[in-house]
Design goal:
This protein is 43% helix and 13% strand. It is α/β, with parallel strands linked by helices. It folds into three domains: 5-271, HUPs (Rossmann fold, 3-Layer(aba) Sandwich); 275-419, Isoleucyl-tRNA Synthetase, Domain 1; 431-477, no CATH class. The strands form five sheets. Strands 4-3-9-10 form a four-stranded parallel beta sheet, sandwiched between helices. Strands 5-6-7-8 form a four-stranded antiparallel beta sheet. Bound molecules: adenosine monophosphate (AMP) and zinc ion (ZN).
């Protein structure tokens, strides 16, 4: 096992990951809200989490990865009603789209992908514990709130002061004076855990000891993380926007519900945002792209994966077309090196990667790739690791050990080199283009150079070029 460090938002320090139990790292990632296709900003966070997991696995840890699906909230309810679909069918569709996108990006599937709607009982039980211990109260309308002033350590993650809490209105539907709910809570800082049924909820509600309603968003992650990782409360992560209030509230609910018996996760890791023209990419600003949009521009998902992960995960990056062009050319270099070193060592990429994924080759024999691994295992410095890889491959290392070490780094980065297109894809020419090319070939045979040149220009105007051989020609797209 080699050391892996990450910057912990809770301590504001880079810390080595030491799991609660043995060599198993519990890792909870806040998952998508399934009401539309996730945009590539969301995927910047999910892809960085995938690399976190791969780095831990490469270091020799076993990772217990849980990522939830938020399948009930204001947005899922409103959209499903708009489309006249039952909530379950509506969110299942978007869940499938999300999972397919994850596969296209070569992301490792989590061991558990729990849904909020399938854990209502656990969420109600957590609220009951909190009421019993004096941390929560039900209001007259049947909503239940967490009393922020009852938890001394509130704010330890985001360092938010109560004064700030009362004056800043967070952009969050469940905390702060955002709607008429503010009059039913004791303090504007308190956040809702159970939302009493509203007419806008349609037929989406569950029975509870406080009447009909539905759980709040923060609660689902607390309840599901405790259920699946209660004994492995190691890493919790999400985009930086989740630090407050989502993660702060998760800590408050979870630590108070168990009477402070457990620390709700030791390491909190937050990924910076993907920006577009200086603004956060988001659905609400309508400045987003999906993986489909990028594929339509002609880039394979691996190119997008590279563009989204080659910046440091704690620094914001601006999304541009240039970053895709740079990613494509960097990947071609990696693919060519992989092809060459494997061929010389008589190895097959798929077999090498399969063995790596299974944890064979787990020796710390990094050779010329030692620097790349050091960079990757210290707060996941992907740009520095990539720099070290390109320096190492310039010297054209060979041999099976170097081949395995290189592919262990590629596994950790999750770049599927099979997806990298080295040559222009061969496309069959349309019939009319073939006819012009045929006439040009005949003209050349008859030594009618004027006609042949005119036909060559016609081919070019149609976007094609004839590459002559001795006995014929090939057609290539310009
Ligand atoms: P949501 O589906 O809105 O709950 O978001 C899913 C994940 O995407 C969360 O971890 C967010 O923090 C993250 N996220 C949202 N927008 C961006 C962005 N522009 N860049 C990076 N991560 C983002
Ligand atoms: Zn969460």
């Amino acid at each position: 096992m080699s050391e892996v460090t990450f910057q912990n938002t809770l301590s504001r320090k880079a810390e080595p990951i030491v799991p609660t139990k043995g060599n198993v790292v519990g890792m909870y990632c806040c998952g998508p809200t399934v009401y539309a296709q996730a945009h590539i900003g969301n995927f910047r966070t999910f892809l960085n989490q995938d690399i976190m997991r791969r780095v831990l696995q490469t270091a020799g840890f076993k990772v217990l990865h849980v990522r939830n699906l938020t399948d009930v909230d204001d947005k899922t309810i409103a959209r499903s009603i708009e489309e006249g679909k039952p909530l379950k069918a509506f969110t299942e569709h978007w869940t499938e789209v999300f999972q397919k996108d994850c596969e296209r990006f070569n992301m490792l599937p989590p061991m558990v992908e729990p849904k909020a709607t399938e854990h209502i009982e656990e969420q109600i039980a957590m609220i009951e514990q909190l009421i019993e211990r004096g941390y929560a109260y039900a209001s007259d309308d049947g909503s239940v709130y967490f009393r922020v002033s009852s938890f001394d350590e509130y704010g330890k993650l985001s360092r938010i002061k109560e004064r700030q809490l009362l004056t800043d209105t967070p952009a969050d539907e469940e905390q702060g004076p955002v709607d008429s709910d503010e009059y039913t809570r004791d303090s504007a800082a308190d956040f809702v855990m159970w939302k009493s049924r509203k007419p806008t909820d349609g037929d989406v509600f569950w029975d509870s000891p406080w009447g009909q309603g539905r759980p709040g968003w923060h609660l689902e992650c607390s309840a599901m993380a405790m259920k699946y990782l209660g004994n492995n409360l190691d890493i919790h992560s999400g985009g930086v926007d989740l630090t407050f209030p989502h993660h702060e509230n998760e800590i408050a609910q979870s630590e108070c519900s168990c009477g402070h018996q457990k620390q709700f996760f030791k390491y909190w890791i937050h990924a910076a945002h993907l920006m577009v023209d200086g603004a956060k990419m988001s659905k609400s600003l309508n400045n987003f792209y999906t993986v489909d949009d990028i594929e339509a521009k002609g880039y394979a998902p691996v190119v997008l994966r590279y563009a989204l992960t080659s910046g440091h995960y704690r620094q914001t990056i601006n999304f541009t077309d240039d970053s895709l062009v740079a990613a494509q050319s960097a990947l071609v270099k990696l693919r060519k090196f992989s092809d060459d070193i494997l061929a010389a060592a008589g190895l097959k990429r798929s077999a090498v990667l399969k063995a790596i994924a299974k944890g064979k080759h787990a020796k710390d024999d990094w050779g010329v790739f030692a620097d790349a691994w050091t960079k990757l295992s210290h707060d996941m410095n992907v740009p520095a690791a990539l720099g070290a890889i390109f320096t190492a491959i310039k010297a054209k290392p060979t041999g099976p050990d170097a081949a395995v070490a290189f592919h262990r780094i590629i596994f950790a980065l999750g770049y599927d080199l099979e997806q990298v297109v080295i040559e222009k894809p061969k496309v069959d020419a349309p019939e009319e283009v073939k006819a012009i090319a045929e006439k040009r070939w005949q003209a050349k045979q008859e030594k009618d150079w004027t006609a042949a040149d005119a036909l060559r220009d016609q081919l070019a105007a149609a976007g094609w070029k004839a590459l002559d051989r001795k006995d014929g020609y090939d057609l290539e797209q310009l």
